[in-house]
Amino acid sequence: MNERTSLPELIAALTALVLDAVEQPAPDGGLSPDEPLFGPDARLDLDSLDALQLSMAIQQQYGVRMPDSKETRRALTSIAHLAAYLGARRS
What we know:
Number of strands: 0
Number of helices: 4
CATH architecture: Orthogonal Bundle
Shape: globular
Radius of gyration: 12 Å
Order of helices and strands: HHHH
């Protein structure tokens, strides 16, 4: 990720990263940036192991570590939240 990466490009990259990290195909109709990734309203059936895999993939791809579980839960609320979280930590 660099400073020239646009928000739509980042969201597309994060969507691909999420689906790849949790080894799931995109749900019917794709994955909206604002839809929940976890919980009863989520179309993906993700659990705490998936959250760990996602945080590791994010660290590997973007160099951003998520050491706090509460911070990780907030960042992984949706693709849009994750993009904002990473955008705030751009170097």
